[in-house]
Design a protein that fits this description.
The chain is an alpha/beta fold and 409 residues long. The chain has 11 helices and 15 strands. The strands form 4 sheets. The protein has a 5-stranded mixed β-sheet. Strands 12-13-15-14 form a 4-stranded antiparallel β-sheet, with helices on one face. Strands 1-2-6 form a 3-stranded parallel β-sheet, with no helix packed on it. Helix 10 packs antiparallel against helix 11. The protein is rod-shaped.
Length: 409
Amino acid sequence: MTDPYPLPQETPAIPSAPAQTSDAPPEFLPLDGAAAAGPRQIVLVPGEEVPLFALDLPAGLRGLAREQVARRQLAGLLGAAAAGDGLELRPFAPAAAKARSQTAGAWTRVLAADAAWLAGLQALPGRAVLPDYLSLPAAEGVWTLAAAPDGRILTRLGPADGFAAAAPLGEAMLKRALETGPAPRALLLQAPLPALRALAQERDIPVADNPAAVAALGLPQPQLLGHGELACDLRKNPMAARAQLAARVLPWRWPALAAALAAVLWSAGQLIAINRLEAETQRLAAETGALVQQQFTGGAPVLDARLQVSRALAELRGAAAGSGPDPLEMAARTAEAAAASGGQTERLGYRDGDGLTLVIRLPGFAAADALAAALGEAGLQAALTDSRTLSGAEGVRAEFAITAAEARP
């Protein structure tokens, strides 16, 4: 591995733990040597240029809305002038990106840098471009610290946090982190840093000099690039990718909106029609129930209209069969014969004691005689009581008095 910060001989350089994302160990290059970076080499930029911020974002926000809220919160932290249009945000969720989890869009940390400076990184070769503090091995509950040759301190406060700062500022930030948050379970020092070692001893925090020593304490062994750090390549801007996708989709918004509006209007029309049909059905059912209650049940409640009407008709038929000819049966036979005659029935009535009265229009007198014969064959006695020609029209108007025959066929 190529060390991005060659330290003096007495100061141990940042060790290169086995990479978790490749079979070969990663190779790091500082930014001033990035022009000669190979396809497997990773370019490191000063971490002070790309600080990492933790934000309090609602869990339900996604996409552009989450980015807008993050920008407003960052403006509150840095000031409106510092977080203006020249500042660019990059969501920081390496573990979620590595796992491809469903919560990858629920990031709560952002990398922030000058937009023009980030644009100058786009042409750099190499496998990735990362802040230098992401080149340290990390594990949950373990803080990793290293020193750069210029005296800066590189710090990794677990897989989801880290920073780079000058030595006095770095020590102050670490003290504040210990005072305001949970203490680490172990401290991995990849440089002497006596002040930080003494601070750890004061707080009874175990200190290790290499990842294997951390594992010997019964803790997860810190891994180099083992938490999806390569997904945070500063040359890639997921926000810009979404903006380009939105620009491609934008021309279709009006046709899609028109189609959605048409679908809504059609659905509303169908619902209105269905409601009208339901209301009409309920009205007819109420009218039918009222008629059945009035004519067939004698005011009794209507529970099953069809069954109650059938029973009432059966009772009427039984009563009619006991006292004389069945009017319904006579009417059915008369209607069948009238339909077969080809005439046009004007009236068919029944009166107790008199039988049926049929008034029908026929093509001629011969048709009237034929109808009388057909009624006789149907077991009825038909008497032609009146027949006359129609004024201004062809045919005759015949009136029959129909009673039941003494002997039915």
